[in-house]
């Protein structure tokens, strides 16, 4: 079961990073801002930092969906800001420098499997094991 949780965390992290790359390249190619926005269509979702339902990549000007990643809520995904989105400038640069997305299993005994995606002040993206960015 721990291996299955590790795979869920890793797969979710890689999908989010892939969708971030999609948003960045799409914006740079079209000269139009985009955003990763959290899905809000699962039960009992009250915190705007809670991304456990998944996310979408949207064109900022038309709201066209470029990618849609629904999740079943099997993992805790906590975004560090309360905006419910990560905006990408028309240049392809993330506009939420210093933000992070923590991905971890719900059960406390698997907390060591957590992974965090970090965006630094220059907009560079990296991920690390654990529940924070250093």
Written overview of the protein:
The chain is of the alpha+beta class and 134 residues long. The protein has one helix and eight strands, in the order H-E-E-E-E-E-E-E-E. It has one helix spanning 2-30, and strands at 34-38, 54-59, 65-70, 75-79, 85-88, 100-105, 115-119, 125-129. Strand 2 and strand 3 (65-70) form a beta hairpin. The N and C termini lie far apart (29 Å).
| Bulk shape | globular
Rg, nearest Å: 14 Å
Going across the major beta sheet, what is the strand order? Answer: 3-2-1-5
Strand proportion, as a percent range, falls in: 25-35%
Q: What is the number of helices?
A: 1
Low-pLDDT stretches: none
Ends distance: 29 Å
Fraction of residues in helix: 10-25%
How many strands, what sense, and barrel or not for the largest sheet? 4 strands, antiparallel
Order of helices and strands: HEEEEEEEE
The class by helix and strand makeup works out as alpha+beta
How confident overall, as mean pLDDT? 92
Q: What is the number of beta strands?
A: 8
Brief summary of the model shown:
The protein has 134 residues and is of the alpha+beta class. Helices cover 22% and strands 31% of the residues.
Detail the topology: elements first, then pairings.
Elements: H1 2-30, E1 34-38, E2 54-59, E3 65-70, E4 75-79, E5 85-88, E6 100-105, E7 115-119, E8 125-129
Antiparallel strand pairs: 1-2, 1-5, 2-3, 4-6, 6-7, 7-8
């Amino acid at each position: 079961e721990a291996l299955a949780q590790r795979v869920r965390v890793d797969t979710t992290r890689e999908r989010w990073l892939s969708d971030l790359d999609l948003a960045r390249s799409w914006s740079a190619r079209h000269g139009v801002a985009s955003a990763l926005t959290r899905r809000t269509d699962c039960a009992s979702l009250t915190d705007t930092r809670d991304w456990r339902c998944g996310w979408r990549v949207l064109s900022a000007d038309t709201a066209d969906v470029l990618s849609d990643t629904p999740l079943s809520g099997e993992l805790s995904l906590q975004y560090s800001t309360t905006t419910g989105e990560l905006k990408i400038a028309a240049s392809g640069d993330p506009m939420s420098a210093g933000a992070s997305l923590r991905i971890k299993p719900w059960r406390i005994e698997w907390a060591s499997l957590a992974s965090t995606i970090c965006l630094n002040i220059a907009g560079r993206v990296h991920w690390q094991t654990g529940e924070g960015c250093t």
